[in-house]
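Ticket #189: bound-state structure for adenosine-5'-diphosphate.
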Amino acid sequence: MIKNIPVKNQEVSVMEKILSGVKIECLRGDIASQEDIEAIVNAANAQLRIGGGVAGAIHRAAGPGLEEECLPLAPIKPGEAVITGAHNLPNRYVIHCLGPVYGFDKPEDKLLADCYRNALKLAEENRIESVAFPSISSGAFGYPVKEAAKVALGTITETIPGLSHVSKIRFVLFSEEDLKVHEDILSNV
Ligand code: ADP
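RESOLUTION: The complex was predicted; output attached.
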């Protein structure tokens, strides 16, 4: 089902599907501007520092306090996730995941699935109700977006029957093409 919701006072088109009582959404936008979401997920680097892409957008919006809080938690390994506060972001938490570098960290599909599983595990442990993910690994880390989306949505579909706190999972895609890929896969799960 496609409907319009207000995000930052603008109407945004969002595809949604309810699976095992959990609402899964896909929309086009900026992960750092999801004000109605409790925890956003960072496609982090191992050192949990400000970088490019998602990590750059999140750290810029959060301010330097986020990097300070991250430093003692680094480094993390591919597939791992850690949680921090959200500082100046409009959310309560940031969950930082290190995705696999495609063609280098293997097996990349298992490591990418671990990111989604571990992020949702942290969300549950912290009684978080809503989580927004970017497309982890599909930027600088080179994971083809369609393959990454299959792993992401497949892992989430497998994980949601065991969730008791998380009731909304949003995918925030940066481009229209990436949104379309995720919508196609979501409509078939
Ligand atoms: P990785 O290093 O894990 O590949 P990137 O941050 O380079 O992570 O990119 C992951 C995906 O997020 C890419 O598809 C990229 O286009 C997208 N992206 C980049 N900036 C943002 C943003 N501000 N909000 C949402 N998605 C973004």
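RESOLUTION NOTES: DSSP finds five helices and eight strands in the chain.
TICKET STATUS: resolved
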